[in-house]
Amino acid sequence: MRVGRQRRLWLAAVLTLVAVLIIVPRLGAVGLFSSYLHQLEALAWLNYQPPSESLISNLKDLARLDELEEENQRLRAVSGFMQQKAYQYRVGYILSRDPVNQNLVTISLGSSDGLLSGQPLIVSEGLIIGKITQVSEHKALAELLTSDQSRLAVKSIGADKTTGLVFGSVGSSLSMQFIPTEINLAPGDVIITSGLEDRIPAGLIVGLVDKIQTKETELFKTAVVLPATNYQQQDLVSVIVGS
Question: Average of pLDDT values for 65-76?
Answer without folding.
Answer: 58
